[in-house]
Amino acid sequence: MLYPSNYRRKKMSFAKRCSFDFSTVIQERGKTYYLNKNIISCYKNKNEYDATVKGSNHKQYHVSIYVSYNVYNNIESIEYECDCPYEFPCKHIYAVLLAIDHKQYKEPKLKPEIQPKQISLKKLIHKIPPKILKKYLLQHMEEYTLELDEETLKKHFIEYLPKEPYEFYYNRLYNMYILRKDPTQEIQNNLNQIKEYMNHLDYVQSFIILKAIICSMVDTNHLTDDDFVIDLLLKLRMYLRIITRKADAKRKETMIVPWIKELESHNFYHHIYLEDVFADIKIDK
Fold first, then answer.
1. Residue 146: what pLDDT?
2. How far apart are CA 173 and CA 187, in angstroms?
3. Ramachandran region of residue 267, left (φ > 0), alpha (ψ -120 to 50) or beta?
4. In angstroms, rounded to a whole number, what is the distance separating the alpha carbons of residues 239 and 130?
5. How far apart are CA 115 and CA 97, in angstroms?
6. Of 23, 85, 154, 233, whose CB neighbour count within 10 A is largest?
7. From edge to edge, which strands make up the β-sheet containing 48-54?
8. Half-sphere exposure of 99 (CA within 13 A, CB side)
């Protein structure tokens, strides 16, 4: 939701600036949440704030607040949202606004943001061998019409797209964990990419993404025993078995084996499910 600011005084608090959007009851409840220290965490990253708030029945909600500034460095607008079921700006948001006003947030050291590599549809088509492109078009055209969806085309010809480096996947997940953002959708996107690259026999890129997922969890202490992590590791175990079986010997020896030995040296961080990911892979001691 976007809530434009009607005030231009620099020293006006966030809560007061946005008060027109909250009923008196919601403001009082938000103030109570703030005073009762229901805000579990609040992080600032440039113009964005991400917070976790403890709601009723100890359920946790995620609040995001984004501040836009004009050329004079005055607040232009404030955008905020909460994943709680309330349909209007809620007490969780108001509590976080009060926390921001009282400087009760952290500014963690994050990894550099790496923008995804872009390629136009025209350049992609130029890269695809004519014979392969012709076959695809004939398979997807009606007698007199042809509909091309860019996303579908890029997914089908993923091997001709520019590949992202390891840091692209790792940094994004690392920062999400540090900022306490929900990484579920990002991880699902990564899993889909792993499968697509494996389908196109690119086991190196598949391994790069897989390694980034695991290392980001290890390095941010999010390698837990909850159901999501266990289910994720089980999927990654299956993918790694396929990658190891299909990848050439040189790639296995230079990429996969050294990483496994490094994890072994740390006793797989005492995580039995992480150890199980590599259980079927034989390496020379």
1. 77
2. 8
3. left
4. 32
5. 29
6. 233
7. 2-4, 75-82, 60-69, 48-54, 39-45
8. 31
